[in-house]
Structures are given as structure tokens and as C-alpha cells.
Design brief:
6-stranded parallel sheet; 3-stranded parallel sheet; 11 strands; 2 domains; Rossmann fold; alpha/beta; binds NADPH dihydro-nicotinamide-adenine-dinucleotide phosphate
């Protein structure tokens, strides 16, 4: 049977390390790192994500704040608030929870965030710095996956990694990270998407499969070779008769079929998800210590 990658445990460890660093900062007379989240509207999934980010901030000793807007807020009002947050010396980093209502341009908002406070790592300058191997805030989900591979000492050098999905926030930065010339990467990377022909031919070649598609149970047992490492990024809400709520969360990987073939696999929930928050806090600590932008 495969080793189950326990993202909750690794995330807890990272949070403890961050909390210890916060104590050191305070001992040195500095203030607590401060992360803010901007939430527009009432999307239940977004509210859950933001609440758990705030709760984890408190746990590690950060200051956190929540800026809420009604879903009818205008783009101009939102951009004005972003401008204020950019200039707020008491704020180290902030995120604007996506998705935003259709009348607001996400790209405009992403580009309005000051790169030095962009702890989500979505600003074109930070993405460009990632591509060029310069210090940057790495997008939280891919960064969390790199931590998981490192923690479980999963060999990546010279391995073939197939990433399925090429979104700006997961698939694309993931493929860049895995191809980097560093001991924690050095993979040969294939980036697949909805126009990829014969996807299974690619995934069957993979030593490491990273699925970030957003389709429940998409990766099946016949698509994965024996001994592969499988990282499931997907969070899909499906109807279920097994839960009181009538819903449950499943990944992009058909776990029961794929797991028996794997050397390592992440469950959903409890795999990649908890790492995303840990990485966001890591980026905020870097911002507070001015390690990326002086
Ligand atoms: P997007 O919808 O932005 O991107 C999905 C990608 O999958 C696209 O590149 C798309 O291709 C590709 N795709 C869709 N259908 C197929 C197909 N049939 N074959 C091959 N590729 C396909 O999603 P995200 O990247 O934002 O998220 C992916 C999943 O990860 C979601 O379930 C999301 O909820 C989850 N997620 C989890 C996080 C966590 O913390 N664990 C954080 C962020 C996301 P194309 O580009 O051609 O359209």
C-alpha cells in the first residue's frame, strides 16, 4: 500500500516553525506579522477559506484582519481600498480572495496589489521573478506541494513529472517549480491541459502526477503507472448519501483505484489543502522580515 501524505501534519509542523519565528521577532522588539484578507460577497467556499486563513494566523501569533465588501461593491471602490492597503505600513501582506463577482476584473485587482505585499504570489512581477529564479512569493498551493515532496523525501531529480492543468494559480507555477534547477525539483516536466491528446499516454509515463483539473475522480487507476507519486490538488464538492449535509469533498483522482498503484498519494481532504494556508503564512513571514523586497 502507498504512503499516505499527511498534509495536516506537515502543515502543523510548518505552523509551529512560523510561531517560533514570530516569538523571536517579538523578542527582538518587532511587531507581529500582519496578514489581511479581502472578501467580496458571500460565496460559502470563499468564506470558509478566509475564515480558516484568519484562524491559522491567530494560531501562529500573526495579526490578521478581514476586509469585507458587499458583492455589489464597484471595481473603483475595491481598487481604492487596495491602494490604501498598499500604503499601510502596519500591513505586511494581503490576499484578495478569488473568485470576484463578474463585474470586477480579477486581472486588474491582481495587478493593483503592491508586489511586496502580494503574498499570494499572483502579481505578474512575482510570477516573472519565479520564472527567472529570483526570490519571490511563490503561489501558495504549488509551494505547499514542494514542501510535501521535501518532507516525505520524495526523489524528484531526473524524474518525469506530469502536471494536469495549466491555471495561473496552480498548474502553470507548479510546472515551473518542478522544472527548476534545484535539488527539490530538477524534473522533466510535461504540462497537460484540456487540449492534450491521449492524456493517458502521458500520465502512464509519469513518475510524479500532479492533478489540478477541478473534475471529480478524473484520474483513474489505468492512467497511472505502478509506483507513481500522485498529488491530488482538486477540491470538488459532490452530492453524497454518506454525509448529513448531502455533500462531500473529493479530489481529481479516483483514490480507491489509484492508491493501490502508488508509492505516495495525497488524500482529499487532508493532503494538499492544509499546505496552502501554511505556505501563505510562510510568504507573510517573508514579507514581515522584508526578505524578498527590502
Ligand atoms: P482551473 O479551472 O483554473 O484550471 C483547470 C485546468 O484543468 C485547466 O488548465 C484546464 O485546461 C484543465 N482541464 C480541464 N479539463 C481537462 C481535461 N479533460 N483534460 C485535461 N485537462 C483539463 O482550476 P484551478 O487550477 O484553479 O484548480 C484546479 C482544482 O484544484 C480545483 O478542483 C480547485 O478547487 C483545486 N484547488 C485546490 C487548492 C488547494 O488548496 N488544495 C487551491 C487551488 C485550487 P484548459 O487550460 O485547456 O482549460
Amino acid at each position: 500500500m502507498p504512503t499516505l501524505i499527511n498534509g495536516k501534519e506537515v502543515s502543523e509542523k510548518i505552523q509551529q516553525e512560523i510561531a517560533a519565528e514570530v516569538e523571536q521577532l517579538i523578542k527582538a522588539g518587532k511587531r507581529k506579522p500582519h496578514l489581511a484578507a479581502v472578501l467580496v460577497g458571500n460565496d460559502p467556499a470563499s468564506q470558509t477559506y478566509v475564515n480558516s486563513k484568519i484562524k491559522t494566523c491567530e494560531k501562529v501569533g500573526f495579526t490578521s484582519s478581514l476586509v469585507r465588501f458587499d458583492e455589489n461593491v464597484t471595481e473603483t471602490e475595491l481598487l481604492k481600498k487596495i491602494e490604501e492597503m498598499n500604503e499601510d505600513a502596519g500591513l505586511d501582506g494581503y490576499i484578495v480572495q478569488l473568485p470576484l463577482p463578474k463585474h470586477i476584473s480579477e486581472q486588474k485587482v491582481i495587478e493593483a496589489v503592491k508586489p511586496s505585499k502580494d503574498v499570494d504570489g499572483f502579481h505578474p512581477i512575482n510570477v516573472g521573478r519565479l520564472v527567472l529564479n529570483l526570490p519571490t512569493y511563490i503561489s501558495a498551493t504549488p509551494y505547499g506541494i514542494v514542501h510535501l515532496l521535501e518532507y516525505y523525501k520524495i526523489e524528484t531529480q531526473g524524474k518525469h513529472c506530469v502536471v494536469i492543468g495549466r491555471s495561473n494559480i496552480v498548474g502553470t507555477p507548479m510546472s515551473i517549480l518542478m522544472a527548476k534547477n534545484t535539488p527539490l525539483a530538477n524534473c522533466t516536466v510535461t504540462l497537460c491541459h484540456s487540449k492534450t491528446k491521449n492524456l493517458k499516454e502521458h500520465t502512464l509515463q509519469a513518475d510524479i502526477v500532479i492533478a489540478a483539473i477541478g473534475r471529480p475522480n478524473f484520474v483513474t487507476g489505468d492512467m497511472v503507472k505502478q509506483g507513481a507519486v500522485v498529488i491530488d490538488v482538486g477540491i470538488n464538492r459532490v452530492t453524497s448519501t454518506e454525509t448529513k449535509s448531502g455533500f462531500k469533498l473529493v479530489g481529481d483522482v479516483k483514490f480507491d483505484e489509484v492508491a493501490p498503484k502508488c508509492s505516495f498519494i495525497t488524500p482529499v481532504p487532508g493532503g494538499v489543502g492544509p499546505m496552502t494556508i501554511a505556505s501563505l503564512l510562510k510568504n507573510t513571514l517573508l514579507a514581515a522580515k522584508k526578505e524578498i523586497y527590502k
